[in-house]
Specification:
The structure holds 2 protein chains of 2 kinds. Chain A starts with 8 loop residues before the first strand and ends with a strand. Chain A is built from no helices and 9 strands. In chain A, the strands form 2 sheets. In chain A, strands 1, 3, 4, 7, 8 and 9 form a 6-stranded mixed sheet that branches. A 3-stranded antiparallel sheet of chain A has the order 2-6-5, with no helix packed on it. By secondary structure, chain A is mostly beta strands. By secondary structure, chain B is an all-beta fold. Helices cover 0% and strands 52% of the residues of chain B. Chain B contains no helices and 11 strands. In chain B, the strands form 2 sheets. In chain B, strands 2, 4, 5, 6, 9, 10 and 11 form a 7-stranded mixed sheet that branches. In chain B, strands 1-3-8-7 form a 4-stranded antiparallel sheet, with no helix packed on it. Chain B is globular. The termini of chain B are far apart. Classes of the chains: A mainly beta, B mainly beta. The interface between A and B is medium-sized, with 25 and 22 residues.
């Protein structure tokens, strides 16, 4: 199985929005509404930010939102804050209890 | 609150077996609601799902690692374990354990443990 494709980097100024794409195939992103997004600060464990494409776990700010169209999922961070600077990874169920992560995107707050 | 903690050797020789354990505290591993998984991250690289196990023992492996991999669970000790055989330098990574469902994502993670494969 191949990793889902994400842009290596994205950036925005405080208060702006940034959107990260996550492209897969009909076998993963396109085949299931089971896309998750994770935030990872340096040296820390990943944190679940979005599950089932667009749902937020308790405690995650509503500045974080997710969507999907075809084989591409997206994470949008609105009202960027300094603490949003981190690496972001998408993941998707890939059938028969199989799981695949994205290549990761480094978000920089300018 | 639920916590996961990885443990095991930080240095493994090439061709040998990497063995790690994830101990679950603050909750039972014997829950029908969740799977228990291993994820790794090579230095400077992205996340890779290694495999997962259900408390009843059913296992689910990344096809690229399946031939070298065994994941097991010990409900009496509330922990699950990873064995990766015939390791090479490419297996050098931070290894995390996590609680998850395949639908709802990985919601509780261990802090991770660094494993270096070197002679």
């Amino acid at each position: 199985q191949s990793a889902l494709t994400q842009p290596p980097s994205a950036s925005g100024s405080p208060g702006q929005s940034v959107t990260i794409s996550c492209t897969g195939s009909s076998s993963d992103v396109g085949g299931y509404n089971y896309v998750s997004w994770y935030q990872q600060h340096p040296g820390k464990a990943p944190k679940l930010m979005i599950y089932e494409v667009s749902k937020r776990p308790s405690g995650v700010p509503d500045r974080f939102s997710g969507s999907k169209s075809g084989t591409t999922a997206s994470l949008t961070v609105s009202g960027l804050q300094a603490e949003d600077e981190a690496d972001y990874y998408c993941s998707s169920y890939a059938g028969i209890n199989n799981y695949v992560f994205g290549t990761g995107t480094k978000v920089t707050v300018l | 609150q639920l916590q996961l903690q990885e443990s095991g050797p930080g240095l493994v020789k090439p061709s040998e077996t990497l063995s790690l354990t994830c101990t679950v505290s603050g909750g039972s591993i014997s829950t029908s609601d969740y799977y228990w998984g291993w994820i790794r991250q090579p230095p400077g690289k992205g996340l890779e799902w290694i495999g997962s196990i259900y408390y009843g023992g059913s296992t689910y492996y990344n096809p690229s690692l399946k031939s070298r991999l065994t994941i097991s669970v010990d409900t009496s000790k509330n922990h699950f374990s990873l064995k990766l055989r015939s390791v090479t330098a490419a297996d050098t990574a931070v290894y995390h354990c996590a609680r998850h469902t395949f639908v709802h994502g990985m919601d509780v993670w261990g802090q991770g443990t660094t494993v270096t494969v070197s002679s």
